[in-house]
Amino acid sequence: EKGGYDHFMQKEVFEQPESIANCMRGRLVLEKGELVLGGINEYSQSLIHAKKITLLGCGTSWHAGLVAEYLFEDICRIPVEVEYASEFRYRNPIINEGDVFIAISQSGETADTLAAIELAKSKGAIVFGVVNVVGSSIARETHEGAYLHAGPEIGVASTKAFTAQVTVLSMIAIKMGLLRGTISQSQFQLLISELNQIPKKVATALKNNDQIEALAEIYKDAQNFLYLGRGNNFPVALEGALKLKEISYIHAEGYPAAEMKHGPIALIDEDMPVVFIATQDDSYEKIVSNIQEVKSRKGKVIAIVTEGDILASSMADYSIEIPKSHYVVTPLLSVIPLQLLSYHIALKRGCNVDQPRNLAKSVTVE
Ligand code: F6R
User: Fold this and answer.
1) Cα 191 vs. chain centroid, distance in angstroms?
2) Which of 20, 49, 186, 198 is the most exposed place for a label (fewest CB within 10 A)?
3) If we measure between CA atoms, which residue out of 135, 146, 95 comes closest to residue 118?
């Protein structure tokens, strides 16, 4: 059942080239310049003409929503809010007839997300679902949606569901951008071609497994970790920190790198490993100076860098390469080494990676 792997989490991390390909299969047809989401149909006009989109989720699914916020704003020029379903439902939120929501959930059974959907629907909102489990409560309660097609996720820590969520949300954003005229046909073609290359690039990123296992040996006894990123890699930093917390029980925090100087920098000393997502996009130079700030305070830097990188990697104590990609799809690659790092650290600490303490795969109570 684990297909030759030692753990479900390991299997699910390593099968991401296939799960992401499955998620795009029959939807993204590069040669024809086609991007079709069959499940979004009757209500597609409300999505295309939305004045605002609210994304709902919990945990890792909320992080996927944060990545999507950058995409919808940038590609579709639509204002976006990303809400923890649990906060939203108890806040007397402002919901008007026809407002557009997208609920994100692996299990499709998360109680808070389900309750937030019911609240939105009761006020006349249109709710789309981005769900993995077919026929689940959230799949049934939403008006329309797009399944992840990632296959069953059994490890409690969500991995392949996250990359599939980001893939589906990217496909929705790119398609909407074309239909709204906020991206050109050639930008559309470029973005779908970038998405299409992701499975192959994820496979390349996974080849650094042994290097990451060796790093895990070095840092397995750390008591704290900081994860920093900017732009759409900021939510990836949150996700990396969550993965480490939940399966290795090491305290970890994710922050936007620029926020470091507003507080967390006080934590940095020679015992503090800081994981930077330092890929070569618009914020690269800024990230490089953030690395400098950590190094000058004797922090230990692990940098996730674009292959061939020289500057950030020369400043870091250790660097892990990922293939070069358009910034829109980078989170699908930058999260891979973070999943592997948490997996190896947890194993070396003797933790049960598939069933971490106190956690359940689907949270059906609030
Ligand atoms: C983290 C994790 C949880 C879930 C959250 C939402 O690894 O698994 O944070 O992401 O409980 O679950 P779903 O996506 O099933 O609604």
Assistant:
1) 18
2) 186
3) 95
What are 23's two structure tokens?
């998620």
ipTM of the complex, rounded to two decimals: 0.99
3-state secondary structure of 127: strand
From edge to edge, which strands make up the β-sheet containing 318-322? 251-256, 224-229, 273-278, 300-306, 318-322
pLDDT, tens digit, for every residue of 261-312? 998 888 999 999 999 999 999 999 999 999 999 999 999 999 999 999 999 9
**Can you tell me which atom of ligand 1 is nearest the CA of 113?**
16
Q: What does pTM read for this prediction? A: 0.97
User: What is the rounded distance in angstroms from the CA atom of residue 103 to the CA atom of residue 56?
Assistant: 5
What would the DSSP string read from start to end of 162-224? HHHHHHHHHHHHHHHHHHHTSS-HHHHHHHHHHHHTHHHHHHHHHTTHHHHHHHHHHHTT-SE
Alpha carbon of residue 250 to chain centroid: 20
- 23-27 — which CB contacts under 8 Å span 24+ positions? 23/148, 23/149, 23/150, 23/164, 23/167, 23/168, 24/167, 24/171, 24/195, 24/196, 24/199, 25/149, 27/171
Q: Which of 61, 142, 154, 165 to mutate to test the pocket of ligand 1 (most atoms within 8 A of CB)?
A: 61
- In this structure, the dihedral spanned by the alpha carbons of residues 257, 263, 265 and 270, taken in order and rounded to 10 degrees, is -130
d(CA 101, CA 200): 32
pLDDT of residue 358: 84
Pairing of strands 273-278, 318-322: unpaired
Which residue is it, tokens 């004797």? Answer: 298
CA torsion 276-277-283-284 (nearest 10°) is: 80
In the residue annotation, 361 being an active-site residue is answered as yes
d(CA 10, CA 341): 11
Rounded Cα distance, 15 and 13, in Å:
6
Cα-trace Rg, the chain: 20
